[in-house]
Amino acid sequence: MEASNPFSLGDKKIFVTGSSAGIGKEIARSCSLMDASVILSGRDEGRLQETLGQLKQNAGNNFIKADLKDDADLDYIVENLPVLNGLILNAGMVKTVPAAYIKRSDLEEVFDVNFTSSVILVQKLLSKKKIAKGGSICFISSVAANYVNLGNSIYSASKGAVNSFTKALALELSSKNIRVNAILPGFIQTGILSNSKIDEDQIKEHKKKYPLGFGRPEDIANAAVFLMSDASQWMTGSLMTVDGGYSIK
Amino acid sequence: MEQFTLKGKNIVITGASSGIGKVCAVECAKMGATVILLGRDTKRLKEVEGEIDALGTAGDYSSFSIDLSENLEGLTDIIDEAVQKHGKLSGFIHAAGIEKTMPIASMKAKDYENLFSVNVVSGLELAKIASKKKYVADKASFVYISSITAVIGRVGVVGYAATKGAIVAGARSMALELAQKGINVNVISPGTILTPMMVKYLDSIPEEEKAKRKEGFPLGLGAPEDVANTAIFLLSDAAKWITGQNIIVDGGYTAR
After folding, report:
1. What confidence tens digit (pLDDT) does each residue in B6-39 have?
2. What's the pTM value of the predicted model, to 2 decimals?
3. Count of domains in chain B?
4. Does B193 reside within a domain?
5. Which site among A138, B126, B145, B189 is 20 to 30 Å from A240 CA-CA?
6. Which residues from A are below 8 Å from B179, CB to CB?
7. What is chain B's percent helix, strand, coil content, to nearest 5?
8. Could you tell me if residue A1 is inside a domain?
9. Rounded to a whole number, what is the distance in Å from the CA of A216 to chain B's nearest CA?
10. What CATH number should be reported for the domain holding residue B159?
């Protein structure tokens, strides 16, 4: 495709957290198919290697093995990253705990992975000037921030925090022409799901709530490509729900 | 990359003779779509055709002159003719719209009716026609151009804002109804866009007012291409799982 395609990511260096599996892996693959240099991160070196091998060849592709909960690892990431044109904060976790059973450690665990680690990473990248002017930051939030499910109060609250932070950061970074947006996915069928404890009947019941059926990782990856690309150069502070119509009922 | 192109798609664009609609038409053609242009002014539609020819992509197009404020009966014939010529429709962009800045004390019922007939009713009628089995492709995407005045207040645009809010609400229910036909429906709500008309308007007002109009947009004012590129994304296969949404494209205005 010609270079003038507004969705092309040629010449962009993009860092994707949580990119050794699931949605993050697909985001990395899609960005690389659009000609970005993609830097992966995750905790499992074997899976990172595997994902790296599945990217479209580009001299800038790489991975950094790190645990985002560890400040020293975050420093190591920032040190080893080039100046980025794109940052996709995808690492996250779900934990179902009814409110009456919530422990401080549950809150800390979920907020640390879904919110705090991403914020600290952004802070460190900004302080080391590792995000280029005209760059784009994208948080992978969740439709659950606004439309809740029983037992997932901590998860929803952590994603709500992500949404608020997205808008505030957008305002702060606009003077550097760095854009900040979030994608709010609905239920995506990934490999992770097949290992989970949710039973098939529950899934069938949940699927009825999706006018366009469940989503695929590609659906989120495509939205991420759009937000990384110059096609969205005037979008900032936007929360983009990608959920097959789940939340419109 | 092919999921972001519009190759093989027939796209109807209303309000295609000027402003955002015109740029949407040219940019869609650039991305490989066959565009069906609807506008009031035949001469200006010809100019848009000329711009598409100049792309050198040899993309096909048709244009039809229609005044959507009064001639909705003509819409079915136009769609029928376009489908016969190009094949079934993969979607539309409803960019036709009229603006009216006037204090509520001076607005008449007729003013509201005019605003609603073009901004809302014609867009809903277009959806009815374009979603008919004989006109719609297996997968299709409908896109409405609204405005951030659907979600924020601005003095003097009560009627206009009401039409834009109506589109956001209508599109949500339409998305549910048309999901079973494989059609996704979304809205783009832009902030202030530097269309030729807006540039002229900004040049006509005192510096102070002009500054006021720009203030509040952290990334400055937008270009018509910013809206067109979002529309292309929503029309493309890349956005098939997005429906019923109001996508805000406003340089950060509503984040504040």
Report:
1. 999 999 999 999 999 999 999 999 999 999 999 9
2. 0.96
3. 1
4. yes
5. B126
6. 211-212, 245
7. 50, 20, 30
8. no
9. 9
10. 3.40.50.720
